[in-house]
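[audit] Reproducing an earlier prediction to check determinism. Same input, same settings, fresh worker. If the tokens differ from the archived copy the diff job will pick it up downstream; this log only records the rerun itself.
[audit] input (74 residues):
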Amino acid sequence: CTELFPNPAKNVLNINSAYAIKEVEIYDALNRLVKRRKVNNKNIQIDISNLSAGSYVVKINTAKGSVKKKLIVE
């Protein structure tokens, strides 16, 4: 179980996972990679203040596989 909050978000995105998060990738509406962060933690914060308002896909790679979540940036 992986959760993103807040969603919609403005400046900071929090991600909580039951498994260790290895990497987070954020893609824009045109499927371009706009942010990537390598980590090794179950709970992380990502600064998204530089992202334009719109819809994004967050790909979260964990020790147990990957999951994609929709994110709205205000």
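[audit] rerun output stored. Observation attached for the diff report: The chain has a mean pLDDT of 97.
[audit] end
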